[in-house]
Amino acid sequence: MEKALFGAGCFWGVEDFFLQVPGVSDAVSGYAGGQVDNPTYKQVCTDTTGHAEVVEVTFDPAQVSYASLVDLFFRMHNPTQRNRQGPDVGTQYRSVIFTHGEEQARIARERLAAAEASGKWKAPVVTQVEPAPAFWKAEDYHQRYFRKHGGHCHVSFAELQAQEA
Predict the structure, then answer these.
(1) 10 is catalytic
(2) How many other CB atoms are found less than 10 A from the CB of residue 38?
(3) Among 142, 161, 133, 143, which Cα is nearest to 72's?
(4) Catalytic residue among 5, 8, 10, 32, which?
(5) Is the pLDDT of residue 162 over 80?
(6) CATH number of the domain encompassing residue 82
(7) pLDDT tens track for 102-129
(8) Domain residues for 98?
(9) How many independent structural domains does the chain possess?
(10) CA atoms of 78 and 95, how far apart (whole Å)
């Protein structure tokens, strides 16, 4: 099993999306990229800690490749919006791929270049690719939020599959 770390706006939707992907065994909402150890949601929401809302994805590379996960990341949110997704605004909602090692960094940069070259978006892609910092798990009430309460804020994996058909 391997780990991937993605920030694409509100972590509730990102977590729910990746949990639907075959080969993903877990997705955990949390925080990464800031200056405070073990931050709380309240602290991160002040937009002063430097953290992004992220999801740590555990996956089996024999079933789904890291490159496929990165491609799905680019398809499930708008990577041209700087420090926001939809109505959520602030650096904690930035589009970011935190990489574990040089191979993930290489793949993330290649897939970012492919996304930019695709012509899908009129605005420039602003996704950051950075080495993975410490990951801090979010409070329990954030985990599996949409499975507990319903709703969604990103395109679903099933919707993406239907668009491809």
Answers:
(1) yes
(2) 9
(3) 161
(4) 10
(5) no
(6) 3.30.1060.10
(7) 999 999 999 999 999 999 999 999 999 9
(8) 2-164
(9) 1
(10) 8
